[in-house]
Structure formats: structure tokens, C-alpha cells
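TODO from last week: model Alpha-glucosidase.
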Amino acid sequence: MRERTWWKEAVVYQIYPKSFSDSDGDGFGDLPGVIERLDHLERLGVDCVWLNPVYESPQRDNGYDVSDYRAVHPAFGTMDDWDRLLEELHERDIRLVMDMVPNHTSSDHEWFQRSRSEPDGEYGDYYIWREGSTDANGDPVPPNNWESFFGGSAWEYDEEREAWYLHLYDVSQPDLNWRNPAVREAMTDTMNWWLDRGIDGFRLDVVNLLSKAEGLPDGDPSNDWVGSEHFVDGPRIHEYLGEIRENVFAGTDAVAIGEMPNLDLDHARQYTGPDGPLDLVFHFEHVGLDFGERGRWDVGEWDLRDLKQTLHRWQDGLDWNSLFFENHDQPRSVSRFGDDERYRYESATALATILLTLRGTPFVYQGQEIGMTNGTFESLEDVSDVDTVRNVRELIAEGVVRDYESIRHVVDHRTRDNARTPMQWDDTAHAGFTDGEPWIPVNENYPEINVARERERTPSVLSYYESLIDLRDRTEALVYGDYELHRPDDEQLFVYTRTLGDERIVVVINFSERDATADLDVLEPDASLRLGNYDETAADPPATLALRPYETRLYEQS
Ligand code: TEU
């Protein structure tokens, strides 16, 4: 796995199109809106775009509920707009990775409509249908105790077919039956249809959940996600992913990125090893560090050593990582891991440094490059995210929390809406995202935090990202170099090296709000400063480094 490929050298920029840029004033971002903003991406220096789903969809889970995989949802534009986007990206040497959702469709999809109305027809076996039973009172009981990730049972009774269907996500997202070869063929055909249009790869949504255990046995009720031991990395997953590799990716240089809830290192190695079916995988261990006793719907304590330990385990254990702190499902990293007030610039740039200088392919999420922050949500009515709404309602109904007020701090910290507030372009109305009324309110700090402002001020998060991406492009050791951690137990400092031949980059970060001093054996007197997030840093390292809050330095030595 030492070979060189484009996706190891690339910096990927993730676009959540609904919230990126609206060209027609309907308050819903669209593809022409993305095209209008491509200069921003070019200037930032990214090499690839991952576009969240833009397929036809009723949008109950913002496009992860697909009703037609071969059509563009009208609010995003037309297929011509999509063609133009691909062309404009490629003209700028920026690749395009589409998001594919193979585990489930929308309940509006024709396959599901026909599956529920014609059980013996062509689509009858496309989904996971079961009879269920009744309890002593004659009430229907679902086929097993599995839970939906969004809360409540993973089963829904369908009056029309008089059977239950499985949905690991929203009730409007029925799981496809991957045991059925026709389903597998339909999905691979769909992917090939898009690849033939010239795209550069796929991010495959929850792709380690495709195989469900034979007989659908009850799960351990004490598990965080009840049933998950029977559908995460299930018994036939390697066969299904192998087929995808063989029938879609083999013989192309398109990248296969697997998004994988509950992924552990062992499975990650199997999925991406020399004979593995995928190129890259997303795991979520580091973004679970701030979970509390009640799991995701609780906030817990973490410290720098935990973060270093988790990142280090994956750096050490997997040859090539996907690096990310944010995406459309995660809150803003500067609010979560840094300090979004006094040290917003310093901590956002420290995080940028980790993201872009560890070994792996970095993914920058829209708005991260200007240090966008979390919002605040006064009532559950102000929250759009189906995950938050369903889970919080469930916690209140079960009496786990009294009311919204008593869980609001968790929602403010955790809800996916934090990532979905519109991109902040300038200080005009709605941050320049739309001329109309945005589908989700803009973060009120937009007059202070926006692209135009970031371009004017020095230093800025944006210009630091630009310099860092440029440095990564010019420095082979930052791409292909070996990684080594120093001072693993240090509570303030994150120090590591990236070494390729005789080129060595030493990354030194004071990841804290306090000053720090560092005598670093690894730093040679002849090292020279390549980048830092504070002005006025001497080019040559003194014997003892004095580092200010979140101060970050990259030295090069040979
Ligand atoms: O998300 C799947 C998912 O469950 C994780 O990303 C989860 O957020 C992570 O394990 C951290 O806890 C994907 C999509 O990204 C999401 O937007 C969809 O709602 C979901 O699948 C269903 O398609």
C-alpha cells in the first residue's frame, strides 16, 4: 500500500449543497450556486469535491432519502446544471466525488411503492419485510428489538402490505435487502451510470451496514445502538463490498470511500488492506470523545491526551486514514475541540494543522476554512435535523430528561444543524447565502465570521488554510512521509514528525489556552520555520520554545 495515487495527494472539500449557495432565491442552495462559488475553492487550493446527495428526494433526511438515483432534485437544479458543475470543476483540475446511498431508499422510491403493493412482484423482495406477531393484548409486536439510529424501533408496520419493514434510519428510509441479487445489481448499475458520466469516485453512505445477520436475531438491549452487533460489519459484508469493487471500481482510478458507523481498527484494516474492497474509510472514534454517560445525547469530558491517543492509534494502525473533524453530521470543530470565542482563530488554525498534516487524506467541510462555529437552538421547533428531533422526543417521552430546556445544552453542542446553517459568505442579509428566506437560519455571528471578512483580515483562518494546503502540496513528506508521535502523555503539547527520506517536518502545537514551553529533542538547531499561526516568530528555533495559546509551528529539517 505504498503506491502513489491521486486521492492520497488530494485535499477534499465537502459541499453540503443545500446550505452552500442559493442562486435563485428560494432559500435552498443549488448547483448553479455551487458553480458561482468555484473561485473560492480554487483559491483555497482543494483538489476534489465531495458533494452530498443531490438526487431526487423528499428531503426528510436532506437527500439521504433518495427517491430516484438517476435524477437531480429540482430544488438543486437540473441534470444540465450537474453536467456543467462537473465540467467547471474538471476545468479547474478539481475532481468530483458523489455520495451514494446503497443501504436504503426513500419510502417514496418506486421500488418501495411497488414492494409494498405487489409482494409477489419484481420488487417484492427489494426490502426487508417481516410478519411480526401480536402480544397478549393483541397489539402488533415488531419482529425484533433493533433500534433506529434516530431513536425508537427500527421497524414500521405497513398497513398496505400488512407486514413490518426495517429502517435503521428514519421511518421514511426503508433498508434495501442486499441478499437479493437484483438489489445488488440495481445499485452497481446505478453507480456505473454515474461513473460513466465522468465522476471521480463515491462516498458510500453507511456501507458497513448492508449485511444483516441471518434470522435477524434480537440484539443485546444494553448496547448503545440495540441490534448493531447484527448489522455492523455483518456476515456477508465482504462479499457485497467485493462485488462493488469488482463491478464498479475495478480498472478505474475512481476512489471508493466507505462511511462506516461503529467502525473499529481491525475492520478498517480489512476493508482497506491490500486486497480490501475500499480505498478510504471514515471512522468516528475521535468524534465520540465528547459523548457522555448517556452516549451521544449527553456531553462528557475529554482532554488532549484522549484526542492524541485516538488519532495516534489510527495513524499507527492503518496505513492510510481519512482525516476529518467536521462533516454534515458533526458539530463545528472549533466549538467542540477548540475555543470558539477568545482563541477562535488560534484554535481553528491549530485544528487545521492536525487535519492537514497527519498521514491520510484530509476532508475540509464547508465553513471550516473560515472557522464557522456552532449555533444555539431555543426550542425543538427551531431544530430541523430529524436525528435530533426524533431522539430528543424519545428521551423526553421515556422520562430520561424532563423537557427540552434540560437537554438544550446537549442539542446546542451536538445537533447536526450546527453544520447545516448556511455558509457565511459576507455580511449582507443571510450572509450572502440567499436573496430569499433560507431553509435554516444563518448563524447570527455572520457579520463577524464570513469569507469576505476573512479575506480582509490578517491573520485569518482562511489565509492559514490556504498557506497550509499550499505547503502540503509542495511538501512530499506531508503527504507520503511516515508519522511518529512524540510526547504522547503531554497534556498541552501535540508534537509529531512526518519523515520521507531525509526530509522531515516537525509539527509542534500547544493545544491549550495556557502558555507552554517545550524542549524538544527531536527539533534540530538547523530546523527552519515553514509555517506558524502567530506573527513574529523567529525563523530558527531557540533551544526552548515558548508557545502561546494554541500556537502552532511547522519546522522543516533534514
Ligand atoms: O450517517 C450515518 C451515521 O449514522 C453516522 O455518520 C453518525 O453520525 C456517526 O456514526 C457519528 O455518530 C449517514 C449520513 O452521513 C447522514 O447524514 C444520514 O442521515 C445517514 O447516513 C442516513 O443515510
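Done. The radius of gyration is 24 Å.
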